[in-house]
């Protein structure tokens, strides 16, 4: 399990929404820019790692019960995305690393892949 605060620190990331969840632990990670792939998941306690920064990402996470989203490649969250995520208790994190580098760091920290 990886604490949100630890992954934020290790990835030099910023928490945009969900600062109250920094002590939460995450067991699994899934990296994708295809929300159709995300909709096939049935895994609890998951971090979605993506570069797709639009409302579809938030809505897909809401439908899939995903509470944590890491935006990579220095993608920025819009105010509309932030508002929707906060309404649905979804923690949003931004980082400048590529998806590959972020995933490598998270694996080293002990985050498990979905499959």
β-strand amount: 15-25%
The CATH architecture comes to 3-Layer(aba) Sandwich
Tell me, rounded to a whole number, the average pLDDT.
95
Number of helices: 5
Low-pLDDT sequence parts: none
Q: Roughly how many Å is the radius of gyration?
A: 12 Å
What is the first-to-last residue Cα distance?
A: 16 Å
Query: How many structural domains can be distinguished in the coordinates?
Result: 1
| CATH C-level category | Alpha Beta
What is the H-and-E element order?
Answer: EHEEEHEHEHEHE
Return the CATH topology: Udp-n-acetylmuramoylalanyl-d-glutamate--2,6- Diaminopimelate Ligase, Chain: A, domain 1
Q: What do we call the CATH homologous superfamily?
A: HprK N-terminal domain-like
- Strand arrangement across the biggest beta sheet: 2-7-6-5-4-8
Question: Based on helices, strands and strand pairing, what is the structural class?
Answer: alpha/beta
Describe the structure.
Strand 4 (28-31), helix 2 (35-38) and strand 5 form a beta-alpha-beta unit. The mean pLDDT is 95. Helix 3 (55-63) runs parallel beside helix 4. 35% of the residues lie in helices and 23% in strands. It has helices at 4-10, 35-38, 55-63, 79-87, 99-109; strands at 2-3, 14-17, 25-26, 28-31, 46-50, 68-71, 91-94, 112-113. A 6-stranded mixed sheet has the order 2-7-6-5-4-8. A two-stranded antiparallel ribbon has the order 1-3.
């Amino acid at each position: 399990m990886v604490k949100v605060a630890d992954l934020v620190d290790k990835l030099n990331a910023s928490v945009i929404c969900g600062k109250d969840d920094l002590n939460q632990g995450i067991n699994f990670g899934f990296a994708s820019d295809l929300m159709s792939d995300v909709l096939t998941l049935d895994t609890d306690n998951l971090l979605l790692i993506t570069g797709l920064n639009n409302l579809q990402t938030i809505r897909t996470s809401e439908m899939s019960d995903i509470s944590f989203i890491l935006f990579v490649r220095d993608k920025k969250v819009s105010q509309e995305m932030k508002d929707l995520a906060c309404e649905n208790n979804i923690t949003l994190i931004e980082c400048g690393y590529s998806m590959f580098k972020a995933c490598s760091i998270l694996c080293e920290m002990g985050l498990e892949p979905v499959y």
